[in-house]
């Protein structure tokens, strides 16, 4: 007599398990990890250029496949459940292993592919990189670039960037930095401003002028070098901004004196739209050094495709420096 316990053929159980496992895709795991990093479904959706409603449906699909509730949800944020935390650790390891095997295979085949997330400050994005990145993309068509331009410091690890191109100071100890160039800054202003306010003859004359200042780049003190002498001068900003592009335009419009890279304003200086001020004083940092152009990457394993881009940028920019 039958025991009353239903049994299923082994083949059916295996097929059912395979079906559930196949529904857990790398796409879903990436979304899951992005939600944890962003702290909300909406924030993760923005990072991935998806709608919050689509992201919500996909997370529901993942929860159904894993048969656990991953998040405790509120209207503004999400919090991992205990099973969700276990699943998150597994998802991170799975994604990393998947990334590693793809990277190892790409390296063996010398065929780099995938997305590289890059943070570039406005100076580098304006002056150096557009033609270089265009040529790189043509040479390596299977690599895709996700580029953010910002003059604010970025945390490569926490914000998920693979690489940064940064102009300015020596990078922090938490990243690896390759210095590929250095550049000079000049004090400059529009002829209309100088006609209205007069031309400074000495550093101290800046006290009587409107200074246009970069907020993350020595906003309160400007440093100069004259021969071996280092001069520090306190600045009272008239206008303060976190982007060099706005400083350039405000200087062109005659709003004050700005300190800008000679490479950025060389055409303005040549045309007379801007005039160099105090050319005998070299703009430097507090340690007397000139600003540098840096390639930065996290102090951890660097993916093959990212190494390819690092080597490419370093080679092109160093060649440009020597030419």
Strands, helices and their partners?
Elements: H1 10-22, H2 26-38, H3 41-47, H4 52-66, E1 71-73, E2 78-80, H5 82-109, E3 114-120, H6 122-127, H7 129-139, E4 143-149, E5 163-168, E6 175-182, E7 185-189, H8 191-197, E8 211-214, E9 221-226, E10 229-234, E11 237-241, H9 244-252, E12 257-261, H10 262-271, E13 275-277, E14 282-284, E15 292-298, H11 304-322
Parallel strand pairs: 3-4, 3-5, 8-11, 8-12
Antiparallel strand pairs: 1-2, 5-15, 6-15, 7-12, 7-13, 9-10, 9-14
InterPro entries: LysR-type_TF_proteobact-type, LysR_HTH_N, LysR_subst-bd, WH-like_DNA-bd_sf, WH_DNA-bd_sf
Keywords: DNA-binding, Transcription, Transcription regulation
Pfam families: HTH_1, LysR_substrate
Q: How would you describe this structure to a colleague?
A:
This protein is 43% helix and 24% strand. The protein is α/β, with parallel strands linked by helices. The strands form four sheets. Strands 4-3-5-15-6 form a five-stranded mixed beta sheet. Helix 2 (26-38) crosses helix 4. The longest helix has 28 residues, at 82-109. The chain is elongated, with a radius of gyration of 27 Å.
Low-confidence stretches: 1-21
And the CATH topology of the largest domain?
Answer: D-Maltodextrin-Binding Protein, domain 2
What is the rounded Rg?
Answer: 27 Å
Number of domains: 3
- Mean pLDDT score: 83
* Number of DSSP-assigned strands: 15
The CATH class of the largest domain is identified as Alpha Beta
Spell out the helices and strands N to C.
HHHHEEHEHHEEEEHEEEEHEHEEEH
The backbone outline, from C-alpha atoms, is elongated
Q: Look at the structure and name the CATH superfamily of the largest domain.
A: Periplasmic binding protein-like II
Number of helices: 11
The termini sit apart by: 92 Å
The assigned structural class equals alpha/beta
């Amino acid at each position: 007599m039958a025991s009353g316990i239903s049994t299923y053929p082994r083949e059916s159980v295996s097929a059912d398990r395979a079906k559930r496992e196949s529904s857990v895709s790398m796409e879903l795991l990436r979304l899951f990890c992005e939600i944890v990093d962003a702290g909300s479904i909406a924030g993760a959706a923005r990072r991935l250029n998806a709608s919050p409603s689509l992201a919500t449906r996909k997370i529901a699909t993942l929860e159904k496949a894993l048969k656990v509730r991953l998040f405790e949800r509120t209207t503004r944020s999400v919090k991992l459940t205990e099973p969700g935390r276990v699943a998150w650790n597994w998802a991170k390891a799975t994604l990393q292993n998947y990334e590693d095997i793809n990277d190892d295979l790409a390296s063996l085949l010398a065929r780099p592919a995938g997305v590289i997330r890059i943070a570039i400050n406005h100076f580098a994005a304006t002056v150096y990189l557009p033609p270089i990145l265009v040529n790189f993309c043509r040479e390596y068509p299977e690599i895709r670039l996700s580029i953010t331009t910002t003059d604010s410091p970025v945390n490569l690890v926490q914000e998920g960037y693979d690489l940064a191109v940064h102009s300015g100071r020596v990078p922090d100890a938490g990243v690896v930095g390759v210095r590929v160039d250095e550049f000079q800054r000049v004090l400059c202003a529009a002829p209309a401003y100088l006609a209205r306010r007069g031309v400074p003859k000495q550093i101290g004359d800046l006290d009587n002028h409107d200074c246009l200042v970069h907020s993350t780049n020595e906003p309160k003190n400007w440093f100069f070098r004259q021969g071996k002498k280092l001069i520090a001068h306190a600045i009272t900003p008239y206008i303060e901004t976190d982007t060099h592009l706005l400083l350039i335009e405000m200087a062109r419009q005659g709003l004050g004196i700005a300190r800008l890279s000679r490479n950025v304003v060389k055409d303005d200086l040549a045309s007379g739209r801007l005039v160099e001020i105090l050319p005998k004083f070299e703009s430097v940092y507090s340690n007397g050094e000139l600003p540098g152009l840096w390639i930065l990457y996290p102090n951890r394993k660097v993916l093959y495709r990212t190494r390819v881009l690092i080597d490419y940028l370093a080679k092109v920019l160093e060649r440009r420096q020597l030419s």
